[in-house]
Amino acid sequence: MDYIRAFVVGGLICVIAQILIDKTKLTPARILVLYVTLGAILGGFGIYKKLIDFGGAGATVPLLGFGNSLAQGAIKAVKKDGIIGAFTGGLTATAGGISAAVFFGYLFSIIFNPKTKK
Amino acid sequence: MEKDVKKQQEYKDIAQKYEPKPTLIKNIIWAFVVGGLICDIGQFFLNLFVSRGMSLEQASTPVAIIMVFLGSFLTGIGIYDDIGRFAGAGSVVPITGFANSIVAPAMEFKREGFVFGVASRMFNIAGPVIVYGVGTSIIVGLVYYFLK
After folding, report:
1. Which of A89, B39, B108, B146 has the most CB atoms less than 10 A away?
2. Between vectors from CA B133 to CA A41 and to CA B30, what angle results, nearest 5°?
3. Domain of A70?
4. Nearest by Cα to A10 from A73, A69, A50, A52
């Protein structure tokens, strides 16, 4: 059951992005920026958590979930450390994903070469 | 002259009628299916870590790391861009697409060197994402602090 919910929630989040790409002038890069920002705002209001409770990975795997983690991390750290938490919490919460992106991104960029264009 | 303009308009109308229908529906279906499948892969790992005793919140970090690994690896061997050609947003929006946006330009610009080629091109798209994401999260934190 959780696989069906993750599929539907994740799929619908992608469908909204697809409609935006096809119907507006938004490029995929702008969609990613839009989604991470939107995710952080929804996370700030605590709205996104409800979607995660329902959709699981369907809500955390899209970039909206990354934005939500940033905002939730900032709020959590503010509760613990005060105002300084606003500056430490976001990156602390997402450190694993960002570090993995830097590390694996660099590694595989070095190891592999782009396929020759046909 | 005026007749020409009219004729051109007529031609346009006719041509429009026979133009292939926009592929929006097809794109939407592919985005839904591929996006959903990628999230299910994430769900598989999420369930795995939770069954090993992690909380849902703790488990999201290793899941993100694995998905980023898969996204960059599949981009490296050239499969991810093949998927992206028909999956559109379905392959862009998940965090695997974020990894793809790092590896694809970095590989492409390797000939410009390992500093300004690979290392700086990695952040072509990831850079703006981090800037806006972290920036927004700081504002959220500050707002929370002052309104609390």
Report:
1. B39
2. 85
3. 2-111
4. A52
Beta-carbon contacts of A9 under 8 Å, excluding residues fewer than 6 positions away, are: A51, A54, A55, A56, A58, A59, B39
Q: Where are the alpha helices (DSSP H) in B2-122?
A: 2-18, 24-51, 56-76, 79-87, 89-92, 95-108, 120-121
Q: Is B114 on the interface with A (CB under 8 A)?
A: yes
Taking CB atoms and an 8 Å limit, are B99 and A101 in contact across chains? yes
Instruction: Divide the 148 residues of chain B into consecutive groups of 10 and give the mean pLDDT of each group.
Output: 76 73 87 98 97 93 97 96 95 97 95 94 96 98 94
Is A79 inside a domain boundary? yes
pTM: 0.89
Instruction: Give the number of domains in chain A.
Output: 1
Residue A98: inside a domain, yes or no? yes
Task: State whether A3 and B73 contact (CB < 8 Å).
Answer: no
Q: Classify residue A118: in a domain, yes or no.
A: no
Assess contact for A57 and A11: CB atoms under 8 A. no
Q: Which of A14, A56, A69 sits opposite B35 (nearest CB)?
A: A14
d(CA A61, CA A73): 17
**Amino acid (1-letter code) at residue B100:** N
Determine, yes or no, domain membership for A67: yes
Distance CA A108, CA B122 (A): 11
